[in-house]
TrEMBL record:
Record keywords: Thiamine pyrophosphate
Protein name as annotated: Acetolactate synthase large subunit
Thiamine pyrophosphate enzyme TPP-binding domain mapped to chain residues: 420-543
Source organism per UniProt: Streptomyces lydicus
Domain Thiamine pyrophosphate enzyme N-terminal TPP-binding positions: 11-120
Residue span, Thiamine pyrophosphate enzyme central domain: 193-322
Length: 569
């Protein structure tokens, strides 16, 4: 077996990242620039960020869009603690991610060394695996294990800490690097048959497609299964993009984002087939309160994702292979009854309701602001249908979660925050998504001004990275969701405020870095502004369009903010 010796640990790491096929490395390294030197020689793209949290968000966006590991490199001590919000999001989003951090020298541990921290203890609750490398001969195996754990089972982040004394130590490995492709386990045949039997017996099934089905819908196998069953198809927010939203059985995003008349389908259904979903609270919001009313067949990759609060059954394995297995076992099955027609009728009624609600919302918007429904309609006309929409989760940008106010175009994609919804995730993740997607595929980020303000320090990063993203910033003066909750408690006379109209300063920062910028306060000006912005993005330049929106312009079905979730009609 041939042995390969790398002059330093950083040289070995750079070679391994080349082996991974890493399209970009994100981060803010510590004082040691040796890794950057090695990556420069390796021609690996590097996105140097201004904030470690944003670096993790970008790497997570890259991982979700690409379906392969995102890589992030940071320093030590406060660099790690600053990154933990991003690591939490990667774990919650089941994004394969490798975080590499500096660590205090072995001979200085426990001496109060500069930025010394027990980093393993700090990071372990947030990752699948964490290891510190103190000896050069352990590095190759640790790198290979980290990648294997990141992509296999339920994907997630892993952490490697490279002690500072490794910087100048040679690293020898035996043989070639191992393959990194995830292994897709087949389901147990008995479990597959048992769940197929329950599915065949259902008369009014619904199919819930979660984030675990991302990149697993080759040949539209999920839609074909739905057609065979006559099942309505909902997605979770993170599962959006896995199925075609122009399919006649598609019903929208489940739970928090389901409105009448589609919400009635959950009360009428006799079985939910949950594919790649952890059944998180936002996805099941509004389901029948009596759990026994709605049994669930769960199909997930990892047993830790199972939810046992509802009756039903489960099968473990790769989402694509489970669907293929069900399709084979149900080959002779045909939908009966009027359930498919009931779904089509609800879709027709939803389209009319959406038009009515958009018209009602326009009446609530004062002069000097633009209705969000018109922003989404203008986006649909200005940018090609195959776009990827990257979202935040604030008051006004929630409009884009509601079908059919926003529907993914043919071949369109979506990246959203997980149920953790860290502020600023979507704005930063869009950079990673852009670098993961083919050059010609549009990437659009719809974000609130509160989230964008947390991200603005990265505008130089966006310019340096050449990541052309169209940002639509919905400006309601601050944190609209918090303001709505405050108004509910204190009324308009409160001495506190989360929203105050003021100049954002985005124009100067954007233009200083060669980015496009426009501000829109009138709906009539919006189409031209979006068209011009998209032309700049298509030519390779990020463009930011700030759009004044109004707090009363709340998403459909929402009567008021009420803590974490809205009050519903």
């Amino acid at each position: 077996m041939t042995a390969t010796t790398h002059p330093t640990a950083w040289a070995a790491l750079a070679d391994y990242l080349r082996h991974l096929g890493t399209g970009a490395v994100f981060g803010l390294p510590g004082d040691d620039m040796a890794l950057l030197g090695e990556l420069e020689r390796a021609d690996t793209p590097v996105v140097l960020c201004r904030d470690q949290r944003n670096a993790l968000f970008m790497a997570t966006g890259y991982a979700l869009a690409a379906g392969r590991p995102g890589v992030c490199v940071i320093g030590k001590g406060p660099a790690l603690t600053n990154a933990l919000t991003g690591v939490l999001e990667a774990r919650s989003a089941a994004a394969p991610l490798i975080l590499i951090a500096d660590g205090t020298r072995l001979d200085r541990l426990g001496t109060g060394a500069f930025q010394e921290l027990d980093q393993l203890t700090a990071v372990r609750p947030y990752v699948k695996w964490a290891a510190r490398i103190d000896h050069a001969d352990r590095l190759p195996a640790a790198l290979e294990k980290a990648a294997a754990l990141a992509v296999n089972g339920t994907p997630g982040p892993v952490y490697l800490e490279l002690a500072e004394q490794l910087a100048d130590q040679p690293v020898t490995r035996s043989g070639s690097w191992r393959p990194v492709a995830p292994q897709r386990p087949s389901p147990d045949q008995d479990a597959l048959a048992a769940t197929a039997e329950r599915i065949a017996a259902a008369e009014r099934p619904l199919l819930l497609v979660g984030g675990g089905a991302r990149h697993r819908n080759t040949g539209r196998r999920i839609e074909r299964l739905a057609e065979r069953l006559g099942a309505g198809v909902f997605t979770t927010a993170s599962g959006r993009g896995a199925v075609a939203e122009d399919h006649p059985l598609y019903c929208g995003v489940s739970g928090l984002y389901t409105v009448a008349p589609m919400d009635a389908l959950w009360r009428e259904a006799d079985l939910v087939i949950a594919l790649g979903s952890r059944l998180e609270e936002t996805a099941t919001f509004g389901w029948p309160e009596d759990a026994a009313q709605l049994p669930v067949v769960q199909a997930v990759l990892g047993e830790e994702s199972l939810v046992m609060e509802r009756p039903g059954a489960h099968v473990l394995g790769d989402a694509g292979r489970i669907v293929d297995g069900w399709a084979e076992l149900l080959a002779g099955h045909r939908a009966t009854g009027d359930w498919p027609e009931r779904i089509r009728t609800a879709r027709t009624a939803l389209a009319q309701r959406a038009a009515d609600r958009a018209e009602e919302a326009v009446k609530r918007v004062p002069e000097g602001a633009v209705p969000v429904s018109q922003v989404l309609a203008a986006l649909d006309r200005a940018v090609p249908a195959g776009r990827v929409l990257v979202q935040e989760n604030g008051l006004q940008d929630m409009w884009s979660y509601f079908f059919p106010h926003y529907a993914l175009g043919t071949g369109g994609g979506s990246v959203v925050p997980s149920e953790q919804t860290p502020l600023g995730f979507g704005a930063a993740a869009a950079v990673g998504v852009r670098l993961a997607e083919p050059a010609g595929r549009p990437v659009v980020a719809v974000v609130g001004d509160g989230a964008f303000n947390l991200f603005r320090c990265e505008l130089p990063t966006v310019a340096d990275a050449g990541a052309a993203v169209l940002y639509l910033v919905l400006d309601n003066g601050g944190y609209g969701w918090l303001q709505s909750n405050l108004d509910r408690v204190s009324g308009p006379a409160s001495r506190f405020s989360f929203t105050t109209p003021r100049p954002t300063g985005t124009e100067g920062v954007s233009l200083a870095h060669g980015l496009g910028y426009a501000r829109v306060t009138n709906a009539e000006d919006l189409p031209a502004a979006l068209s011009a912005a998209w032309q700049r993005v298509a030519s390779g330049t990020t463009s930011i369009v700030e759009i004044a929106v109004a707090l009363p312009d709340t998403p459909p079905g929402m009567t008021a903010a009420s803590g974490d979730f809205p009050e519903r009609e």
